[in-house]
Design goal:
This protein is an alpha+beta fold and about 240 residues long. It contains six helices and nine strands. A hairpin with a 2-residue loop joins strand 3 (about 155-165) and strand 4.
């Protein structure tokens, strides 16, 4: 069921077209399944590159009219004798030839420019894919492990960075919160704990978006708080990590 929802949402995620709830669910699911990260990164990359695709260019209407008028003026009357080709060419180049030549060069230039940009776009897509594959081989996503207190020994938790200053907290083997309580994430900035999301561990693993940018933060912590969360911590941290 979750995998089907992932398949239904991945293209919309790449286009930044998900609702806030869908985006949080998708990124939490992605954090639990890092093997899908490469596919999502390629979709996001393709979405960004497509936004650079050039729009088709058309010559201005007044230029088209001038070109047609010039061609009609230079065209010989059908009942008259056609002068030699060399004379027609000299007449064309000697009168309105510069205008026609400039128009033709402009039209050819516009077409060539579109063809060039399409070719460059294809090369950029390939280069970007090659770089991502190389980066994926050399290093995985940045992760920071949290340190547990005595009551959380055996719990494995980490902060997984998703890019664009977004991150997910992922925990394994975390016991459920007591009745009427919830786990709350805090981001420490300038020594002040700022609320950054709630979660209730269920089953063997749990994941939650960190709902506050980590740029400039000193640490991330988890506390046990009353259901619904608290504006300020009411208990000591059960897990912490310097970021």
């Amino acid at each position: 069921m979750d995998r089907q929802r992932y398949e239904d949402l991945k293209e919309a995620y790449a286009l930044n077209a998900l609702s806030e709830e869908e985006r949080r669910w998708f990124e939490a699911y992605l954090a639990r399944h890092p093997e899908l990260r490469r596919e999502v990164e390629e979709l996001c990359s393709l979405s960004a590159l497509l936004s650079l695709a050039p729009e088709e260019q058309e010559p201005p209407e007044d230029l088209r009219q001038r070109v047609l008028a010039a061609v009609a003026a230079e065209a010989p009357h059908p009942r008259e004798e056609h002068p030699p080709a060399s004379e027609r060419l000299r007449a064309l180049l000697g009168g309105r030839g510069p205008l026609l030549a400039a128009a033709a060069m402009l039209l050819v230039g516009l077409i060539s420019w579109n063809v060039f940009l399409q070719a460059e776009l294809g090369e950029l897509r390939q280069d970007n894919q090659d770089l991502r594959e190389q980066a994926a081989r050399e290093e995985g996503p940045r992760e920071v492990s949290l340190h547990a207190t005595d009551g959380m020994r055996g719990v494995e938790a980490k902060v997984v960075y998703l890019g664009e200053d977004r991150a997910v907290l992922v925990a394994e083997n975390m016991p459920p919160a007591p009745e009427g309580k919830t786990m709350q994430i805090w981001v420490m900035k300038n020594g002040e704990p700022l609320p950054a999301g709630l979660f209730r561990p269920e089953g063997e693993s749990a994941a939650a978006m960190i709902e506050r940018p980590l740029e400039g933060a000193e640490a991330v912590a988890i506390t046990v708080e009353p259901a619904g969360g608290s504006p300020h911590p009411t208990s000591d941290p059960v897990m912490t990590a310097r970021v």
